[in-house]
Each structure stands twice: as structure tokens, then as C-alpha cells.
Amino acid sequence: MAKILEGSAMKFFNKWGIPVPNYVVVMNPDRLAQLGEANKWLRESKLVVKAHEAIGGRFKLGLVKIGLNLDQAVEAAREMIGKKVGTAEIRQVIVAEMLDHDEEYYISIAGNKDGAELLLSSRGGVDIEDNWDSVRRIQIPLDETPSIEELTELAVSAGFSEGEISERVAKIASRLVLCFDNEDAQSIEINPLVIRKSDMRFAALDAVMNVDWDARFRHPDWDFKPVSEIGRPFTEAEQQIMEIDSRIKGSVKFVEVPGGEVALLTAGGGASVFYADAVVARGGTIANYAEYSGAPPDWAVEALTETLCQLPNIKHIIVGGAIANFTDVKATFGGIINGLRESKESGHLEGVKIWVRRGGPNEADGLAAISKLKDEGFDIHVYDRNMPMTDIVDLAMNS
Question: Do the Cβ atoms of 279 and 318 come closer than 8 Å?
């Protein structure tokens, strides 16, 4: 699953006929001023400027400015771009026309094992959670599409007035289903969907959308990158491992944690969390989250190994895992061994201690092979399944 930013979601909505306000995404305030010369709506509308990053609570952080003219919007963009919030740096802003409106609605769709579920409420906006009893829903079976009549009936039951409003909401819901199905989405939420009754203009003012990133080969027009949900953009190294992960049987994962001294190269999601908790509980600091699972090819594990060996200031690498059921220890250790060798030849791993604990198919051969790295000058300590999993953490922390 990959979360995408609001601007990319708005682009999808335009494509599938879901109304949105006029908007632009810019990385340079001067570009916004230039766009103002070419776009009448930027000169004549009240504007909203928002940090276009995966940062929660933007309004409270002063990263949403409303009711601005173009000059004020340019200054707001200049103030936001380059600003650091925690570990995140704001690289772009989204500027949209500010629409006066009479009512705020809520609409969303999310996939489930039986198809998808569509939700509607006539009481959207920031208080939707307090008004959750107003939400009405319809289950959409796999390979089926609800009719406009069914969606209109749902809208009326959700509190929309009968007639033009409920019919227009039904059409927007129908287009949302099309967007969801055709763009390999996993969930889409519009909150709020607004209406200005003077001219019956609807618009999706904000959106959260998740897509199946592994399906991007079907979408040559996807010109965006997935958004990290850890408060900062993905690093180049993280994106490279994600790309490998999308192409292999099995899985490799990698997330950097700045400032840590213990690098983790662990087998399986459970073990990865287990070892991370163990390091932190003993007063250590982790430099990354990583895992390989599902018998990935050795070249993918090698790439993962080289990536974490390049982390700055690490003092230990923990190659840990439980007792595998089907992942071949010898095969995956082949990738780890090659990655460690390549990293050492590239000038990394100076002064780094390596701690290994693993069990599973062909563990004796795998552990014997990785133990031979001692003869090549590696400071490596290797243990089999008889060593309790977290004891290598104790050894590392006390070394």
C-alpha cells in the first residue's frame, strides 16, 4: 500500500470527473507568482496555501494559511518551503482557490475481502468522528458497480435532501467507485466534499488516498512517488529497496532511523520488531528497521545488506531471526555474505561488530559460511538456534 499526497489525489479526481477546486503544486514561490500571471483564478480568488507533505496536524503547526490574495500566498509559500518540522522538510506547497460553501459532506471507499465499502454522510468536516452515527454505507461486491439509483437511495438515507443534491452526490459517489476500481486504489476519503448552493457547485476540498503501489506497471500515467507515513519523505536508499521489493518473490524492507548506532538485518516482521524493542530496552539506539522474509532471492538480500552497511555511525549489525520454516538460511546468508564483503571493500564497516543468530533450513551450512568471514578480518560473532534470540543484543550492548 502506498499513500499519495493531496495533489496527486486531486489529479485522479480530475481524471475521473470528481469536482475539485482549482489548484497548483509548487516547489518555488517565484513559480507561483509566474503562474498568477497566467491563471485568472489565482489573481481573483481567495487562496488557501498548505504544506504539501505527509505531516499531521498541519493547521495547528501553522502550515495552512487561508483567505489569502496572490501576494500573500507567495509569501506564505516562501515561509513554508524549506521549513523543517521534526525530521521532515517542506519541499512543496499546494495552493488552491478558497471556496465559500454552505455545507460539508463526507464520502469514502475502502477495499475489503468481499469487495469494497462506500460510506456517505451529510455531516462531514472536522466533526465527522463526532457525527459517525450519521454515516450510511453500502457493500460493493467484487466485480460489481452500484447503480445511480442505489447510490441516490444511500444518499437520501445519509441525510442528503431528495432531488438535485442527493442525485449529484450519487453521481460523485459513482465516479469515486470508478476511480477506486480503475486506479488500483485501496482506500479514498474525501472530507470535506462541499457545496455552494448559489450555483450548486460541488468540490472535494481535501482527500486521503492509498493505492496498490505494486500495480503501478499498469499505470504509465502515475507520475508520483509514494508518501512516507513516518513524518518525512522516503530517502533514496528506502526507495531503492522498495523498488526491489516490488519485483521479487518474498520481501525486503528498509527504513532509516537517523542517529542510531545498531543496524538491524533481521528475518521476518515479528523478529524485526522483537530485536528493535530489545535494543531500545537495553539503552541502545537503532539505525534502521529492516527485514527479509518469504525466501527472497539472494541478490535482494545482498542489496539490503549493502544498504544498511552504508548507514552512518553504526557500531553494531545484528543479523537475527527466529527458526525459519522454509526460508533457506544458507541461500539468504549467501546474499548477506556478499553484501558484507562488498561493503567492506567499499570502505564501510570499519570498527563495526557483527552479531548473528539464526536457525532454519540449511542453518549449519549458512552459519558455517558466514563464520568464515572472521578469516577475512570481519569482527563477527555467530550463534545457532540454541542461543536465545535477544542474547546477542545483550552481547552487543555489553561489548
Answer: yes
Task: Decide: helix, strand or coil at residue 64.
Answer: strand
Q: What contacts 70, CB < 8 A, 6 or more positions away?
A: 32, 33, 36, 42, 43, 47
**Phi, then psi, of 261 in degrees rounded to 5:** -115, -10
Q: Is the pTM of this model over 0.90?
A: no
Q: How many CB atoms lie within 10 A of CB 162?
A: 10
- Is residue 236 exposed (0-12), middle (13-18) or buried (19+ Cβ within 10 Å)? exposed
Q: Binning pLDDT at 50, 70 and 90, where does residue 311 land?
A: very high
* pLDDT at residue 269, as a whole number: 82
Cis peptide before 226 (omega within 30 of 0): no
Q: Cα–Cα distances in Å, from 11 out to 211, 212, 255?
A: 14, 17, 28
Spell out where 23-74 has E strands: 23-26, 47-51, 64-68
| CATH entry, 22-97, from 3.30.1490.20, 3.40.50.720, 3.40.50.1370, 3.40.630.30 | 3.30.1490.20
103-215 topology per CATH: D-amino Acid Aminotransferase; Chain A, domain 1 (3.30.470)
**263/193 Cα distance (integer angstroms):** 45
In whole angstroms, what is the distance from residue 27 CA to residue 92 CA?
4
User: Which segment of 65-74, 134-143, 228-237, 255-264 scores lowest on mean pLDDT?
Assistant: 228-237
Phi, psi angle pair for 116, to nearest 5°: -155, 160
